[in-house]
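2 proteins. here.
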Amino acid sequence: MKLGRRTFLKLAGATAAGAAATACSAAPPASVPSSAPGTSLPPSSSVPPPSGPPDWAALRKKVSLLLPGDSGYDNAKRVFNPAFDGREPAAIALCAKPEDVQAAVSAAARRIPIAARGGGHSYGGYSVPDGGLMIDLGGMSSVDVQGEQVVIGAGAKLKDVYAKLGGAGRCLPAGSCPTVGIAGLTLGGGIGVLARKYGLTCDHLVSAQIVTADGKLRTASADSEPDLFWALRGGGGGNFGVVTSFTFRTDPAPSAVSVFSLRFPAGSANDVLAQWQRWLPEAPPELWANVVLSGGSPVGCRVSGCYVGDSASLTTELSRLTDKSGATQTMKQLDYLGAMKYFSGSENRQSFVASSRILGEPADPAKLTSALSGRRGMDVLIDGLGGAVAEIAPGDTAFWHRKAIGSVQIYSQADPRNRSAATDSVAEVVTGIGLGGGYVNYIDPALPDWMTAYYGDNATRLKQVAKTYDPDKVFGFAQGITPG
């Protein structure tokens, strides 16, 4: 049985099974018509919104469309978390090319909510708009390696991105769950196991093709729509428009990536967390590690990660984690693609409740372990940042948390019978650990002051970008960036 990333972290010392890599089809063209260099701004509409629902019959002549009751509709609306199975989009547009997205946006704009669905991993379920139009990008999933760059369709999943890049000897730092979509990951920043060495996924973005609220297909890059390009690098999925493809610069794939896991004995959590917070910021950027605290009595503790280099070098770095007495250790040296498969796992859907915080400075270990005491089925996962992530100023891209030690995910198993209790328990832990901030790719509908938590001082500029490109909130949702 394949193990999900979070399951893998619970079983430190076991060998994670690799996810199967399959090729995708229905590629967007390598280059598509776009706006001229510079900024061609969509006007703010003073015309009252159109009345009545979209003309689905007319749209169906242009785009493959599913309506409630159609064969395939129930399956198409499903996303990763079964908690959102009860939501009912008014229609699902199965888009295979940018022109399909343009037609769908133009038909529904200012009539009903519009949301893009890439991998379907939105923690808030925002890619399944109740009574709205879901723009399914699964048919735009090509991965086209072009020398040192790669053009990736917005519907591509990470398992396919890694397979194609690994086969070409290239590397793009990204996440670890195999069915996460490249679009949402990039737009929220893109934290992953190679981030300290190579940076965030959004740091490698060269340009993006995007359909904005006026139905135009634009190119966002440093030289074309530069404010929009800035916002797309960490400003969160669902905002500003529907991206149809991304062009990234890549790095040569490392020949060796050594992976490891350490499981510590009961009662070690406070000491290990204290040491981890000192150890990782001083480590070379080739080393990435997390620390995972598992609820229970006592609280469990594991450290897992990887080193871009050979296992001998990794052994040297692990020796600096001063107290490993009694820890169970596993280690292996892999190639780039093998390491990405090691950290991936099951493609099965998972029912859960989660939130996030940011570790901006060393935390009191006792606060975290106390909050988790007795809470079986809940983990606090702290993924290390620093290194290349911190080399970029917080205002240079929309991703704000450049100087943090790590991102913190509070994750609890949940099913329909205990979802309410799990939600309350996550909220209690979030309060108990006493940390601020948040990572928009772990979006939480209950997060207070979420705009500041996700975007910090970048929030003001993001609101201005929304005012320019989506003044009528065509892509508005509960935690969407509104014009300011």
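next one coming up
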Amino acid sequence: MSAETIARAETMTGHGSERVMRRRQWPRGIWPYDRTSVAPRATLASALAAGAIAALTLQVTVVSIAYLLTGVAVAVTAFATVRPRPTRAQAGAVLGALALLAVAVVRGAEWLIALCVVASWVVGSVALVGGWTWTGLAFASIALWLTPARVTGWVRRGRARLRTGRGVKPGRVAAVAAISVVLVLVFGSLFVSADPQFAAVFGAVVPDVRVTNPVGRLVLGFLVMGTALAAAYLRRRTPRFDALAPRPGRPIARWEWAVPLALLDLLFAGFVAVQVRVLFGGDGHVQDTDDLTYADYARQGFWQLTAVTALTLVVIAVAVRRVDRQRAGDRRCARLLLGALCVLTLVIVASAVHRMSLYENEFGFTRLRVSVMAAELWLGTVFVLLLVAGVRMSARWLPRAVLASAAVGLLGFAALNPDGYIAERNAQRYADTGDIDVGYLRGLSVDAVPALDRLPEPVRSCALIGIDVDDDPGWFEYNAARSRAREILRARPVGECTARYSG
């Protein structure tokens, strides 16, 4: 046997082993590996365009419309170039994911945009894969990271078909694109130098890629292109992650779950009854108690109450798996005990929100305090959904409802404009008490500029020092909050800070 034959056999054996490993990666029927599917030409072209859009317009550190443009390009690749057509639920989820990315167009707070981008990734992934169980949704959110090996073969087969087909060859497309870019840059630069008015128009239309890190740009474009291809592959070969969900637990005797739940209900009821004055005492409780400040009152048990809320979700999740839903008596008992637990927990959630509200009113608003308040309100929404599920004794819709409530809640949080709200409340506090912490306010984003602009001098200048919005970006870096802040600061430039303020 020749050396060439041996090498070919070893190569074939290696590919066979790789295929076996890919087949055994998931249990049978979850996500079968398909060695025959081919990436469509439209998908390859659209993914390449998405990568180019990201490389030319998107800067991760600059909050702008480029986030939305990149998201739209990826969505088009996944849902417009691959069959089947998206369902109504998928279309709604895609619109929700794009709405979360659209926050980068109207808000300038980087921390808020980071939350929206992560949430958009999760919602968009669920739109691709679907899922009705907690396990299915969890795997769906990371599905894009599980596709590289499959997508590589899918794209390779697509490129091979392009090379052997009669259509346009990818090499020719790349050559034409490169020549076109060179011609536009060469002649465009000559026209720009010849006419200032044309230079202004040309600069506004053509992305001004100020490349300080060309390698980073290329890497970003490649990653976005890979994400678009992975999204299209998931639409074409969708895994069934719901099948990985654990089966419902074996029902147990009623007294085995009813006794612990009844004792827990009594404990919660006793806590609420004894602590009614403490939970909702407010100003009177603080003033009537020696050595108790607003800070102590707000923080006294706040994190413990938050932990109680989270642990109650775990208790309910475990209990419902052990209830025999076929027996009417067990269903009535579960509704009574679990419903009471949810209602009492809602009272505790209200207590935690009340404590934080008093703390904010007394010491001012910060990002952490406002975010914690929003998280507590969302947990309250989750318990309301649990009550509805308990009444219906059906929770198949619950995981999706919780995810949808989180996405809608985050959009509502962005609509509130947290940085602007924080600045506005602190400005109002300064008007009422004369106390203000400009050191903290300086760290807010451009979303806070309209509220801080209403402060009297020199407090206004002290709070606005360090905000730089002088540059006129291109259209692909547009951000409404930054544009408005630029107009305000150009109309009323920041002066000299002549004093220190804190409080």
